[in-house]
Amino acid sequence: MSKKVTSRLLISTAALALGAILPAAAQQVATNDQLVDNTRTGDIETVIVTGTNFNTAVAPAKASLDTMEPQTIIDKSYIADSVSNTADYTTILAIAPSMTGQDINGPGLSDGNVKNTLRGLADGNFVMAYDGIPFGDTNGPSHHSESYFPGVTIGSIIVDRGPGNAGSLGAATYGGSINMFSEALIPDARTVVSGTAGSWGTYSLNGNYQSGDLDADGHNTRVLINANYTGSSGYLTDQNTSRENYLFKAQTEIVSGWTLTAFGNYNGLFQHLNDNNGITPAQINTYGENYALQNTNPALSNYTAYNTEAKKTDMDYLRLQGSVGGIGVDDTAYMYAYVNKTVSSTDIEQTQADINSGTDEGTGKVDLNGTVKKSDVPGYTKQNAYRVYGNILRLSDDFDFGWLTGQVRAGVWWEGSATQRQRKDFDLTACIANGCDPWHTTQYSDSELSSTSQTGTKVTSAFLVDGYYEYREHSDWNQYEPFVELELHPLDGLTITPGFKYVDWDRDVAAPLEQKTTPVVPYYGGFTTTRDLPFVEANYKVEQNWSVYAQYAQGIYVPDISAFENSTPLLTPPQAETTTNYQVGTVYYADNFTFDGDLYYIGIDNNISYSACAAPNQSETCAIDTGTATYKGVEGEGTYAFQGALDGLSAFASASDNYSKTLGETVKVAPLWTEATGLVYKSGPIKVSIIDKLVGQQYVGKQSLSAALTPFYKLPAYNNMDLKAGWTLGNFELALAISNALNQRNLLAVTNNDKAAVGTSLFDLADRGTSLDQYYYAPSRGAQISLTAHF
Questions:
Q1: What is the chain's Cα-based Rg?
Q2: What are the CA-CA distances from residue 753 to residues 164, 618, 750, 774 (Å)?
Q3: CB neighbour list of residue 181: distance below 8 Å, 6 or more residues apart
Q4: How far apart are CA 601 and CA 654, in angstroms?
Q5: Per-residue pLDDT reduced to its tens digit, 344-377
Q6: Burial of 217 per CB tally in 10 Å (0-12, 13-18, 19+)
């Protein structure tokens, strides 16, 4: 994007923000009735009291007047009316200030996408939760956007850009919390059926049934059932995907004053995807930006039959709510699981010389009992399987001392996990040719199957049913976090909430063969991390429709499983990453606009950065303690609703200026700024939405204690514009969604594999024929048409 275009967009955003702020100074507080928008998200209620005529549903993103930290609320109307029907949370979240993320295979059509970042913090450094339950991988709390909750199963999202209060739970709350909620249960029966077809052979079928109020032996019950089937050949060549999702939710009043909610979600995903996807400059020059896999040449590592992923996930919970003796009780027992069985070639990268000779960097590295098979493709099976189970108990009690009113809240979060991870090398060429099943093999002892060689793939038999384990690792955790906080109202309009949380997190590893050790050796060990986390936050209603807030909080990132995975086994427990957060902000609503803005500062000690491991494990990623890091910035968002002749039209804008540094360098993959602008029109049967998200410059090269970032690996700003239009006739709605409407072929990310920069420019691909860096581009313009029937 040119500097002139960027400047114009920044100026337009600033003008909209000023247009929201300046009238507020002169506008008299509205005296009309309050507008209360109750968005029921499961049983967690977001109440936006504006004291004005502003219809909060027209704002794509906004904050609550009661918030005590920077916040963006994304409701169901935005999810349904502004993004593609196949979208996942990666696409939906991009609208929020300081957030990035985009799928490289089409909206919601791959787990191998460019993941969300928040304020420059990578995925895994902030919490993701569904109906109040934090979830993520157990080897590190990162996420897979196509593996759990399709966009159609998300009722709303609250992005809390801060640690929250003592009751905000998760492994990395210091970076913020992405709180997704299931669809609200409604009192009237409803059935909605939709079908979608679009670019790259994409299809989606969704059925949604709500029972409304049912009388079950005198007790009111509501039921939700949703089924979704989605598939696509994908924008990237032969990187197809297919998934099915089933969701069940029921809520019943079991006795007077007590409500039980039962929830279950299952997601099955199958896709062709290399475990280390991305294309080199030579591949881009020869095959194009959408090159990924191919199904005609089994001599190459990117042959589709060599690269498959099968994933199954589920989340289930029971939630009991009521009161005993005036004390509110809210208890949730839950479990979730993830099973990933990947078959992947070892290396799909190609230099120009590889392409010219019909080979790649992986082929020819199979070692059959000392004999190298120069024409065979090496590969591996990788399993990551875990189940997490836990309980969240929350208690609350109101108090009134006359001059001081409020509420005391306390509770405890307990959670355990069990994880099995393993990777086994074998000869893909011979295995596929002989019809072997790499997942069902004769099991030998670990000592027989472990390979101490790092130069190639070792196998044990001519038919290559058996292979060598690179690692076999079992791990678990057992953690509990008691918390308490007071909500105090010493003055009208003032809420002060101090609190305290204690973290006790015990991790253990039992690895017959530990990952990344050289040579591969067993490792058995564990450590416990404890920490006191105080916080205090306040919200003051200057007027009924204007609030200001401030927050101080300490946070922690408990060392994850990567702490054990080093070339030399861990002998002492690692230091936990700790943070101190300071934030101030304001929220304002008027009759025709809303605005919220904030300033933030996050100081981090024992900052963990991820980069390529030392030799001979350069293909692996290792955790590096870079010392301290600082994240700070300013954020804002607002919506203006036009009136008169333009009634129904709203303009939206958000922006952030972000500073993220460690070791004196900007943090890798941390954009310098973000911006979003858009127009939304809703009137009668017509709905139109145009949203454009911009992401500022970022560095994508290596970052470690010995290798600083360089201008060579600095990406320019880029944008993505999505358009969606719908027309309703009776019980039917026809909609057209266009992703990347401007067909911007943006370079979103680069994996830096080269030891030193190759060529004179990251973008002069013809000069980078020997580079092994991997590039990730935005998909081209795509279209989806959908028909929805309401009964």
A1: 26
A2: 37, 9, 9, 7
A3: 41, 42, 44, 130, 131, 154, 155, 156, 157, 158
A4: 19
A5: 999 999 999 999 999 999 988 877 666 778 888 9
A6: exposed
Distance CA 446, CA 3 (A): 58
Three-state SS string over 347-362 comes to CCCCCHHHHHHCCCCC
3-state secondary structure of 463: coil
Distance CA 570, CA 554 (A): 27
Distance, in Å, from the CA atom of 314 to the CA atom of 294, rounded to the nearest integer, reads 32
User: Residue 34's closest CA among 756, 718, 591?
Assistant: 591
pLDDT in tens, 643-685: 999 999 999 999 999 999 988 888 889 999 999 999 999 999 9
- Structure token digits, residue 495: 């809420």
Cβ-count burial of 326 within 10 angstroms (0-12 exposed, 13-18 middle, 19+ buried)? Answer: exposed
Both structure tokens of 541: 């209603």
Pairing state between β 99-102 and 71-74? unpaired
3-state secondary structure of 386: strand
Q: What sections of 386-544 are H helices per DSSP? A: 428-433, 446-449
Coil, strand or helix: which one is 16? helix
Residues 421, 423: Cα–Cα separation, whole Å: 7
| Residue 689 identity | S
Q: Nearest Cα to 268, choosing from 311, 225, 204, 205?
A: 311
Nearest-CA neighbor of 363 among 290, 299, 282?
299
Q: Please give the pLDDT value at position 612.
A: 60
DSSP code string of 24-43: HHHPPPP-SPP-EEEEEETT
CA neighbor of 711 nearest in space, from 658, 659, 757, 766: 757
3-state secondary structure of 19: helix
- Report the phi/psi class of residue 261: left, alpha or beta, with left for phi > 0 and alpha for psi in -120 to 50: beta
CA distance 227 to 32: 43
More confident residue, 6 or 729: 729
Asked if 629 and 121 count as a contact pair (C-beta separation under 8 A), the reply is no
Instruction: Note whether 776 and 104 are within 8 A (CB).
Output: yes
Contact yes or no for 88/137 (Cβ under 8 A): no
Cβ contact 456:425 at 8 Å: no
